[in-house]
Amino acid sequence: MKNQGKNLLMNTSELNLANVYSKFDRAIEDFQSLLKSSNRSEVDAYLQKLDAERKAIRTNPVLKLAFIGQYSAGKSTIISALTGNREIATGAGITTDTATTYDWNGIQIMDTPGIGTERQDHDEITYQAIEQADLLVFCTTHMLLDDHIIQHFRKLAYEKRYSHKMMLIVNKLSAEAGDEDEKIKNYRASLHQGLDPHNLNDFPVCFLDAKDYCDGMDEHEPELVEISRFSKFIDELNKFVAAHDRLAQLDTPIRRVLTYAEEVETWFVQHPEQDRRFLEALTRITRRIRDERHKLNTAVKRITLNPEVLNLKILFSKNRHTN
């Protein structure tokens, strides 16, 4: 049974990959040919970027997961709880100035500076990390759950089109007094209202207290560990990773190429007549990449969301991490 499961996973993870690579290569070649017909100084840099993405879609060995959100949402504490690394700086103020990488069960997780503050450099560092990440965990708290932070979430999910690879965490659950179930009910209602007309149920959502978990583990207090709800978060995070896994790694370089195409398109907006043919060709390439990305997402999701396959992926992921 175990070998059969491995074969099934191999077949799903390799679903039409040769076809995906071939179409991606053709789109890259067309894009590069188009760039070479331009005399702009930026061309060489974009040619190098496209070569890098052609390699990345085949050789992205480690899944990259970025923890993002406002400062003081407890991103560093969550990562400290996950990794057991208590040397990670945590606190109420700004504790992270750079995107820092840690290993967790063979996954590369990134701690990032807070977004939406007055620190423009922090926003730039975080958005660079987002560009490189395969999956995103957006962190907030009930104290930060206002229109400002919801707008940042909406921007990433819908304007930047990351909704299919985002998880939402409400941290510091114990910071507010009251019945836990009632608090979670109220938080969910606020999130539903803030995301309207979009649906909160489109995202995995977890409510937890990472500091309670760290304190409970360090002080050997199992009751504190239990009320932290952190174990449930770990289970949901494993499911989130297992459900996306290879699809997310394929999607990242394709998405970056689409970003390059959009950037190049802005070169010619001011001279539509002069550059009309170039822009038309670029539009065709962009449309083809988008269509293939959509087909890839649909095909792989159909398989990865199959309960039997998903359970096998989680099982083998746990076995790999414990062996």
Which stretches are low in confidence, meaning pLDDT under 50 for 5 or more residues running?
1-14
Shape field: elongated
Listing every helix as H and every strand as E from the N terminus to the C terminus, the arrangement reads HHHEHEEHEHEHEHHHHH
- Rounded mean pLDDT is 80
Number of helices: 12
Spatial sequence of strands, sheet with the most strands: 2-3-1-4-5-6
Strand content: 5-15%
Largest sheet: 6 strands, mixed
Portion of residues within helices? 55-70%
Rg: 21 Å
User: How far from one another are the termini?
Assistant: 18 Å
Number of strands: 6
Structural class: alpha/beta
Characterization of the model:
The chain is an alpha/beta fold. The protein has twelve helices and six strands. A six-stranded mixed β-sheet has the order 2-3-1-4-5-6, sandwiched between helices. Strand 4 (135-141), helix 6 and strand 5 form a beta-alpha-beta unit. The longest helix is centred in the C-terminal third of the chain and has 36 residues, at 230-265. It is elongated, with a radius of gyration of 21 Å.
Reconstruct the topology from this structure.
Blueprint: H1 2-13, H2 17-36, H3 43-56, E1 64-69, H4 75-83, E2 100-104, E3 107-111, H5 120-132, E4 135-141, H6 147-159, E5 166-171, H7 180-195, E6 205-207, H8 210-218, H9 222-227, H10 230-265, H11 276-304, H12 307-322
Helix pairs in contact: 1-12, 2-3, 2-11, 3-10, 4-8, 10-11, 10-12
